[in-house]
Amino acid sequence: MPQRKKAKTPWRPKQMHTKHRPGPEEEWRKRLPKKDGSNKNSLREDQVGITEYVSNGAGFTGVVKSRFSDFHVNEIDLDGKVLQLNDLTVPKPAEPTLDEEELAAARQKFREIITDDTWDKMSALAALGAKDPAAQPIDIIVTALDKTERGQIHDMLKTLYSSKLVGSTVTEVKDSTEERIIRVMKPKFNSSSEKRTRWNFPGEYVHFLVYKENMETSEAASRLASRIGMHPSNVNYCGTKDKRAKTTQKFCIKRRLPSQILTAAQKSYVRIGNFTFSNDVLKLGDLKGNRFRIALRHVNGDEAEIQKALESLRDKGFINYFGLQRFGNHADIPTYEIGVALLKADYKTVAELILKPRSNDLPFMDEVRKKWWDERNSAAAAAMFIPNEFIEKKLLDGLAKYGENDYAAALRKIPRNMLLLYPHSFQSFVFNRIASRRIKEYGFKLIPGDLVYRNKEEMDEDIIEKCDLDNPTDNVAEDIESNEDNPEIKEDAETTASDAKNEDSIFKRKVKALTEEDIVSGNYTLFDVVLPLPGHDITYPSNEVGAWYEEILAEYGLSSEKLRHKVKTFAMAGAYRKLLICPRELTWKFRKYSTPEETLIASDWDRIAGKADKIENSEGNGDLKALLLDFCLPPSVYATMFLRELLKSDTSAAQQLKIEKDEMSKVRDKQQTTEVNEGKEDAAQVESAGEVATTEKRKLTADETAEVEEKKSKPS
């Protein structure tokens, strides 16, 4: 007797929890790290290889992301269109209707399938209430019909009975014969929102734009999935966008009503619209780039010099570094160090670095780390979490399940894309160091051995998908599907050298090394040059730069061949990335403003709400000055590195907080000085007015005295 298949446990959406806050709220808030940057132990740019500039200007003061509303990102699709939320229309499914002639023809066509007796039964069923015991389903055998013909029967039923009856096509096995049946029944719903609707849209996938504020892309996707009742991996998008920003990008979901998605969005604190339909699913990397609109506040510098710096940046570009966001939030334990341990298959060190206590951590996370570090009781430490999204929580669950010393097995609890953040961070670290040294030692001239794409059409696209670095604006998408049973991390999941070599030639031949003749021809510039991200299947420059890669890898006990990891998941094939990038469509303007809270850039939602004109056409009064920037960048290029080149200053959070604190202090001092001066002027005016009044009073008294004396002297 054949065994019954075990029913698949349906995915249950996670409940939304607030972050665990041990102790009274007042005490918890007292222990929060200060927000003035004074104690924020964040990475500096020079610690991750970011040291050089394209131009030698002095730079100027300007604060990046003083407010999240100062940073706007709009995705650019593959057709080069900047995506903007501007249509809130919710499409409704086309209702299939047949006119009398079509209906008569359909009934005649299927008269042998649906007899007069069956029609009578369906009419009687339509007249019954949904909860009437006599309202039993009616089966129509349609085994001999194809999908189109079955659809015609469904259209006929919809035309005749509207929402009174619904039909479902099911397959049943009777006497070892498979039969296809249209089962007609009363609809099972409790409200109009639950009415059963056939999929009558022109595509399997619903594409729509998502506008979010101060929220991770992965969080927006998870919230939508939770409210719709599907796994987050079924919510697709092209790339992740900044959290501290207002962003617009495209999502897609398979076969869900737009009205249902809208309801989920309203409960998820995101705005959606611009619905379209397609049979194609969105994939990471399906974009041309991003449009950025950025306000730099507290700008302090000569406008003419700033104009020159902008013109230089527009023409000469900037170094295509990986930004600080790539390397984590803590200088104590940068993510690339964990990546090194992972690439060396030192899983114990990986786990310890992830869970190790660090300075200026979140209060509750600090307690979790210290508990595990001191006691090595993973179950107890994991129990301190309420939300499950933290990577530390997943690792602790793994250690509790598989054993305190089975680090390799415990790491299986962490989703694959989360784990890949670490080795990718190391690749980015190596790229940054090589790029800085290349510029420092050879400047901006081409040298023989530099790499360029053979196909110039690929020159505008960094080939990064091979190592899953699809991260257009500062973050990497999280695949939160569980890898609990993923065998790839196991020791026996090895990729043989012969399999890998079969792929070598294609990827390595995508680039070529420049010769002296190529350089003299004038067909190439430094904007064509690419540098590799280290890997086992990559072409390195055939000059001194190529040797630098092995030197850096050797510093960390690695080599290109060792990046052919015995665990396929962690094998780093390598990638290519442009050395320099020029922004496209760069424009700018200066603007005055009065208060730090004043909105300086109109968002997509501001336009829909009719607020854009007021924001954009304001005269801009006040003593504070901002620089408004508008430009486009290719995928995987960091806008913060554009700003770094312009400002000539460190873009780390601690540095930006310090600059803003200093500038705000200057503003307060100026205001206080003005108030004091105004007070002195008022006092002087009062004193002067008093003196005038006294003089007038004395004069009046003198006049009165003189008049009395004059009267006395006259005879009566």
UniProtKB/TrEMBL annotation:
Q: Which stretches make up the TRUD domain?
A: 317-582
Ranges annotated as biased composition (Basic residues): 1-21
Bias type Acidic residues, positions: 476-486
Quote the Pfam families the UniProt record gives: TruD
Q: Which InterPro entries match?
A: PsdUridine_synth_cat_dom_sf, PsdUridine_synth_TruD, PsdUridine_synth_TruD_insert, TruD_catalytic
Keyword set, alphabetical order: Isomerase, tRNA processing
Q: Which reaction is catalysed here? A: a uridine in tRNA = a pseudouridine in tRNA
Membrane spanning residue stretches: none
Question: Does the keyword section mention Repeat?
Answer: no
Gene Ontology terms: cellular component: nucleus
- Annotated region (Disordered), positions in chain: 1-44, 469-497, 663-716
Q: Name one GO biological process term.
A: pseudouridine synthesis
- Is Lipid biosynthesis tagged as a keyword? no
**Protein family (similarity comment):** Belongs to the pseudouridine synthase TruD family.
Q: What is this protein called?
A: Pseudouridylate synthase 7-like protein
Recorded source organism is: Bactrocera dorsalis
